[in-house]
Amino acid sequence: MNEVSPILHVVGQDLARTDAVPKTTGTATYTVDISFPGMLHAKVLRSPHAHARITAIDASAARNMPGVHAVVTRDDLDGLNPTYGYFIKDQPIVAIDKVRYIGDTVAAVAAETELQAVAALERITVEYDLLPVVPTIDTAMAEGAPELFEEEPMGIVPAYGQGASGARRIGRNNCYRFSYETGAAEAFDTCDRIFEDRFVFSRDQHFHLEPFVTVARMDGDVIEIWTSSQNPFPLRKELARVFQYPENQIRVKVPYLGAGYGAKNNCKTEPIAILLARMSGRPVRYCMTTEENFLTQCQHAAILDVRTGVMADGTFVARSGRILLDAGAYSDASPLVAEKAGYRLPGPYKWQHLNIDCDCILTNTTPAGPYRGFGGTQASWASESQIDIIARALGRDPLDLRMQNVKDLGEAYVPGESGIDSDLRAGLQLVADRAGYGERSHGDGRGMGVSIGFKDAGGVNKPAQARVRITTTGGVYLECGTIEIGQGIHTSMSQIVAELLNTGLDRVVYPGLNTDYTPFDQGTNASSAVVVMAQAVQQATLEAKQKVLDFAARELDCSVDEIELDDWSIRKGNESHPLAPMVMRYYGGTGYEFTGAGFFKPEMDHAAPLETQCVSWEFGWGAAEVEVDRDTGLIHLRQLVVSGDAGRAINPLVCRGQDEGSAVMGLTGVLFPCMVYDGAMLMNGNGLDYRVPLATDIPDGFVSILQEQGHGPGPFGAKSLGEGCMLPVASAIANAVEDAIGVRIRELPLTPERVLAAIDRAAAGDTGA
Amino acid sequence: MSGEFVFVSCTVNGAAREFHVRPEEMLIDVLRDRLALTGTKLSCDLGACGACTVLLDGKPVSSCGTFAWQADGADVRTVEGLVAADGRLDPVQRAFVENSAFQCGFCTPGMIMLARALLDRDPAPDRPAIRAWMGANICRCTGYEMIIEAVEKAAELTAETGE
Amino acid sequence: MYTHSTDAGWISRTHRAISPFRLEKPETLSDAVDAISAAGDVTIIAGGIDLVRRMRGGDTWNAVVDISGLAELRAIEDGGDKIRIGALATHWDIETDSVLASKMPDFQMAWKTIGNIRIRMTGTVGGNLMAAEPGYDGRVLLAAAGGSLVFLTQRGEVTVPADAGPENIPPHALLTGIEVPARGAGIAFDRSLKPVVSVAVGLDGERARVSVGCAYDHPQCWSGPVEEIDDAVAAFPPEPRNNPMGSAAYRRRMITVLARRLADRLTAGEPS
After folding, report:
1. In this complex, do A654 and B100 lie within 8 Å of one another by their Cβ atoms?
2. Yes or no, beta carbons of B26 and C68 under 8 Å apart
3. Quick check: A723 contacting B, CB < 8 Å?
4. Phi, psi of A564 (to 5 degrees)
5. What is the 3-state secondary structure (H, E, C) of A9-43?
6. pLDDT tens-digit profile of A650-691?
7. Region A608-632: what's the mean pLDDT?
8. Contacts of B50 in chain C (CB under 8 A)
9. ipTM above 0.85, yes or no
10. Contact criterion met (CB < 8 Å) for B24 and C14
């Protein structure tokens, strides 16, 4: 569609977002704002132990407490499939045989007030038989370590295409392995130099300000929920399985989301809220606290061993890697994250051979799941750090080495894959120039680093449907399942529709999601909306438009080629024919709606490693400048220049917000402590002790540059955006630290203590760091 | 005595209000539950994130950590109260709209009230002053730069219109 | 973690599950002292920032004594050789006070780094000091300034130096204010390594004071001749906290680095 219209009136404009007024005046409705008369409040009892068998549980006293209407323990799960998960159904609604991390859900109460619910929970007694605890990847994999699951939970390994494969339970607490291989392993034998490095990645928590929250009630036989979810349709399917209930008897409604960053996929607060609502016959609100968010979902910590062979002239030849993801206590989305972390480890470079395994290791900690970047953050951290290590060893400038080896525009990522749809060299040069990389002074405690963050975007095999309805008077409904999670998608999708209909943005309405009416979507994730759903939206819009034009041509007794849609009139030469009266003349005074349907799904393709070719490739180019305090190890970030490629920006201001927001989110895992565990006990899992970046943490030298290279597959050349700019941040900063003080740090976050320890080791002559 | 109600008289967004509250009842719940002013959001519930920021006699406070009786005799303002009777938005709201200074919107009412408190004190703050002041509240979406620019813009709008 | 636990498990409450309490609003200082001296679990509320957090975590009190109406506790008074700051003075009152600006600009500047604007406009000096949170800066700064805490009890006024340990705080005592020597002592403060460690140094002629926060349950303080500062800093601090947030060795080393740096800065007359 690049050639649709050289002059765009709506697309590409910095129009005010369609949710701007509700969100700035306090009228926007979120799930936390949903309330019903007689609504009960759910609270849960959480495991105080990291790993224990439940030998007895007695909630009888709780059931008789004032205000209590329902209590759920493992004894209340009859008739359910009580476990859920993505590939592996291992997470119970409430603990059944064991608890597997501190914070695991043991029991739940619905009462008229929260205080009553808490008082009832205090009366529940549980006997635990403590088991050995494995809070880290190393301890969980060790010989003789206890298995979190003694028996294999129900689950699947999906089909993969060329070079890719999956496996379950291939080692102790190893719940899933993704592997990818291409080219001959002998390529390593031809290399002049081989580099082997271990990188460690810490785990952030999403820190979405709206907590996990669901309001559930029974509407006759229909289970009706309002929930803060990024993927209501897959959620509905999973709930149907858990409750053994027809999908069309479960109604999921999604108001505005107070963000998610990946966390709000699949079952979180929903099963307990529904169960309590069914048992009590009353509406139930289950809203977690921030502390409970920390005990529900987080990013994957990781250990990444990367082996890379290169020629003396800097040519990249072969890379192998083994990634160990800390999955936490349940598999959740770990197998999917493993696919992506493994698949993204090569980075956008030319290789003859790749061989990568990514394993998900269960530990007695908070379950890890989808988190912005989805494995790409971990992979980019290792890959882009090692490129600087290689450059320094070869006496090459790290920027030049990247320029030498990056994929060309249009070059397939790996055999069977689609072509890279950005000019990588242009993006890298842009951020380097803006930061003053070529003219930098470095080594004296101050230095710069660059990085290319990389991921495949658009999801895997995502089907998307959309519907466009145009009323008698030209009002447009865009019915589409993409969730407004903050990314501005209601606005950008509506801008696309308005542009295609040659009308104003104010004519387009994007109704809230209700699975009873909204066309199917697989989920708001993978930076997919503007390249996957938007193609369905475009098709739906054009179909509706064609119906209007066909109708008008018939009414005006002319050929469709002679007329154009101009707002809600038909332009024919110099004549303008308002459509409303024309519609009513034909369809009657009661009016009519023109409807268009759209569908998009990438083709199945067994030659593609993930069974469909990647829809769009997402990049974040980054350049960082730091000043390192050699006495304390404190890093002062002086500049952070990031850039993403929107292909064609539907709304440039919205795009800017995505790039800047993701870059700053990326700082969390670099300059702040992240989730700090003392054994299996999380030390800082609350809003006060957990540090996310504040306005005062952002340097004046923070800049984002929006590129529109024009090569995207979405409408008007749009590309995926919104995750890319978080991906280069960690490695750009670590690379800058080495540029500044000659010390390579391979473990995140770059806390002052860790930096100082590395300085000490370097001073002692240990260059291995 | 436990359970005894406390009488609270205050103005909320300019209107006189009277309540009998329990001592442990929080201002945020009076605003959200009794007055249906749900723009004010609860998030961290520890006074750290600022999503629940309202103005109490012009001071930005966390309404999740302010007992309702602490508002006795005070002037309480929420994000809803910034909208004029004729529907016209406050310059801070207009600037947030025009600059796209929000994403998910959950922190936005608190951010807007925080900014309002700044501009009430200092109609022309410089960028470092804005950054320091706005550092009180957490936004996980935007990366802050567009918020800071919106506060600058709000100051300009105020100067232009004399509001 | 701000959760409360039973043998059976953890419960994370919101403020909506704060246990009911009786509210008392004394109108005089002596009534306030009587109220907190009464039997039963009684606590004081001023700004409320810390108390609400503790109650949300599950702490309960029969009665809460609101002293915010005692206007006399809010004053900042120039007492010649010392400045008296009322316990109800907010952080904002301190950072905008003209007496402090002219006589103790260093102290004022350092105090400005506390919390954020919401906390500074509501939080009080008394609340910050009496919360005795390891990560709070008020006590660290006050100790470096050579200040003291003034309490009122039913037996009269008690003054406790800010560098004294928590065991020196009298029971059933109402903090009425703090006193800060106004001898032009320079104060410098470094909080850049929080929450691992924070250090404040005060210089008053030939005498130096060092106080260390975050690394202990309570701030650790030393005072002595300025030329002994290096030896003292190496010797006086007990073993700091050792946990995954920060090792004892790192914290100890940073105490020496930051103290030396701050002392040099003060000696050179640089602004804090």
Report:
1. yes
2. no
3. no
4. -135, 150
5. CCCCCCCCCCCHHHHHHCCCCEHHHCCCCCCEEEE
6. 999 999 999 999 999 999 999 999 999 999 999 999 999 999
7. 98
8. 116, 118
9. yes
10. no
